[in-house]
Structures are given as structure tokens and as C-alpha cells.
Amino acid sequence: MDTEAQPTERDRSSHPAGPEETSEAPGPEERSRSSLVPRLVGRLPGRWMTAALLLLLALSTFVVRPFQIPSGSMAPSLRAGDRVVVLKLAYLFGAEPQRGDVVVFDGTGYFGDTDYIKRVVGVGGDHVVCCDREGKIRVNGRSVDESGFLFPGEGASTVPFDVAVPEGRLFVLGDHRGDSSDSRDHLGSPGGGMIPVSAVIGRADWIVSPFDRTTRLHRPDAYARVPAPGTNAAHPGEGAHG
């Protein structure tokens, strides 16, 4: 699942980048499996090999999936080449993505014909605006301090936006706003840059490789004080501006 360096993305809605999560191998590289697993399974005795393959298939279908980060669009949280574990069970049984979650989703028909990894900034019913007078994103009238995960030296966005997220949709952004093709690049497209919750494959929960970066990915506290949709607390003059 190793990849070459990916083309640089641009923080401009008028210049949508091509699919950022691509690979030179046949098919999207994020949907491939690490070559280490087949090699290990291939060394097992016949019946154990069959059992191991069935277990791996069940795990990848219903529980977890490996995903290699193909670009710098989520830096510094995730670096190109990092391998993460995506928990597919996270949103089963009625649960849905929450603001701040890092999710992997199928971008077919919305972003591009491959899988993407981004951070959820707005959920169904939210009003998301950028930027306020302090250069921050506002969600339902509350400014969000994203300094804990934004790429150092970058602001919330150089692209102003003012969007209402429909029910069943998500507004997603990369943490490296100057190097991410995300919802901002598709504001004028069908769906307005919002992806359907049904396209979400799972939540990125752990960085597992390289070993010196192994860590749990926690939902940041930055969104904890955002009020529920429909309770917009914005003050006059604090909407989006260029």
C-alpha cells in the first residue's frame, strides 16, 4: 500500500484538485490491504490459512479496515505514509459521525472516485461560517478554536463560506487547510460539498505505523461547546468575510 508523493492540493474552491487519495496500483490504494498480511497468512498450514483468511475477511468487512494516509491534507494530525485503523463499527446501531471526528468516506460522485480522510466540521442542521472577526470558523454561532490541530501557521481558511448542512450530510475539512481538497472545493457542485453520512466507511481511531507515531486519535474538545443546530448564537456582523 505504499504510494508516491501526491500532487499538492490548493486551498481554492475555484480550483478543485483531482482525487488526492490515489495510487499507482490498480484501484484506489486505500482499498488495498497491506502486503504483510498475505505473506503471513501464506505461511500457515492449510486449514489454519482458511480460518485466518475468513477471520481477516470478517474483520475488514464488519469491524476494522487499514488505511494509509496518501497526502499531507490532514497534517499535522496525520502525515503522508501513516497507517491508521478505521473502526467501521463506530457508526453502526444508530450512531453517527460527530463534529471533530476524523472519518474515511467514499468520495464517489462527490469528491472523486476514491476514498478520502477528513475531519467533520459540521453535521446535519449545522450552520457553518468562515471566517469570523478573529479568523475562526463559527458553527451554530459559536467560534471554534482549531489551533490544537490546524497546520502550524495556517488560519481556518482562505476561502470564505457560509453553509447550512442538510440533514444526513457532513461538512468536512482537512487539518492542513492550505493543502486539502475538501468541502470548500465543491461548494458550487451538486450537494454543495457536503457528503452523505451513508458514504462514511468508518472513524479513524488509531495511528499504528510508523511505530514511533502510534497513538489513539481523540475527538478534540474544540467542538464541545458548539450549541445544537437551530440555536444559532451568532452576533450581528460576525458572519463570513474575505
Report on this structure:
10% of the residues lie in helices and 23% in strands. The chain is mainly β. It has a domain at 65-223: Umud Fragment, subunit A, CATH 2.10.109. The longest helix is centred in the N-terminal third of the chain and has 18 residues, at 46-63. It is globular. Mean pLDDT is 79; it is low at 1-19, 21-37 and 235-242.
Topology record:
Layout: H1 36-41, H2 46-63, E1 64-68, E2 83-87, E3 102-106, E4 115-122, E5 127-130, E6 137-139, E7 142-144, E8 161-164, E9 169-173, E10 195-196, E11 200-209, E12 215-216
Antiparallel strand pairs: 1-2, 2-11, 3-4, 3-11, 4-9, 5-6, 5-8, 6-7, 9-10, 11-12
Shape verdict:
globular
Radius of gyration over all CA atoms, rounded:
19 Å
Can you identify the CATH class of one domain? Answer: Mainly Beta
The average pLDDT is: 79
Helical percent range? under 10%
Count of beta strands: 12
Order of helices and strands: HHEEEEEEEEEEEE
Question: What brief labels describe this structure?
Answer:
mainly beta, 242 residues, Umud Fragment, subunit A, four-stranded antiparallel sheet, single chain
Short note summarizing the structure:
This protein has 242 residues and is mainly β.
